[in-house]
Amino acid sequence: MLAGAATLAASMAFGRIAGLAACGPSGGAGPVIAFELVRTAEQVLALFGSEPCTSRLIAAQREALWLDMLVFIPAYTAFLSLGAFALRRSGLALALAAMGVFLLAGAFDEIEGLVLFKILGAMPGTQAYYDALFWTVRPKFALLGVGEILLAALLWRGPLPAKIASGLMLAGGLASLFFLLNDPHAPAMMKAHSYGWGALLIVALIGAARPALAMRAAPGA
Q: pTM for the whole thing?
């Protein structure tokens, strides 16, 4: 539950970073996601526009990356992985698989951050940076979607509140994968993740007060 609260707090903190606004076309995505999704030097130069906006956005993106790598990624990785572990009575193998998927997604996300720092330090950088970015960002989002589907399967095996959360988690996972494959710049992709994670946080809050309402009882209980 604490990891979930930290994830929520960190996600809200991105909106408080001064100057974190695209200087050019972002394809409809927020500035952080738009930066993650760039594929070429031309795209990153368009996103960062011209001075004085360019310098402000570079500084803001650096601040966002530190927040991401030091707080948000560890928080959401712990939240989702521990959520899967807490539901292990609904299927140990499934829970361990979900944990592995989320830990791998977090690792990809941290590597992605290092690549983004390289691009910011050598703007616009070489195509090798953008190739590396593609093979960290896309797998990260894909793993998160798959992990959410696994969590949905675990939640479905629990009491009624968990079953309700399962539907939201499954919808979030499937929708996020759909948008990743068809329109990753669409704000709906990140909203799909947030709805699923929000459902898990509510279940965690319920479980903290009434465990029997959130997870399957232990054998013989």
A: 0.93
